[in-house]
Every structure is written in C-alpha cells, then in structure tokens.
Amino acid sequence: MNIDWGDLTAAFALYLVIEGVMPFVSPRGMKQAMSVFQRLPDAQLRVAGAAAIAAGIALLWYVRH
Fold first, then answer.
1. pLDDT tens per residue, range 32-47
2. Phi, psi (rounded to 5 degrees) for 27
3. Is-contact 23 30, C-beta < 8 A?
4. Residue ranges making up the domain that contains 35
5. Any long-range contacts for 9-18 (C-beta under 8 Å, 24+ apart)?
6. Number of structural domains, the chain?
7. How far is CA 11 from CA 16, 18, 22, 25, 40, in A?
C-alpha cells in the first residue's frame, strides 16, 4: 500500500476547516452542543461515533472506486 501524503494532508486540512466552522460561526451554539454531548451516555456516543466512522468509510470507498 502506497500512501499519497498529499491526499492525506489535504484530507486533514479539510477536517480542520470543517471542525472550525461551528465554533467560528456560532461559539454559543458550539458550547450548547458540547453541553448536550456531555450529558449523553457513553454507549450512545459510541454508537454515534461508530455510525460516523462507517459513513466516512462508505463515502471514501464510493469516492475512490
């Protein structure tokens, strides 16, 4: 497997941009969302995380094939 470091760096850069949008646009909304996440049970957060991972893998597979 040959890693294209340019693609990996671009993906990480895009991740940082996406992560920065919410706190930039609505800092108060971001704080409220984090407060909600803090109250959720660990199991529910794990399921949401697993769903996000699966969606990301599926999207990546779709785009690359």
1. 999 999 999 999 999 9
2. -60, -40
3. yes
4. 5-64
5. none
6. 1
7. 9, 11, 18, 22, 29
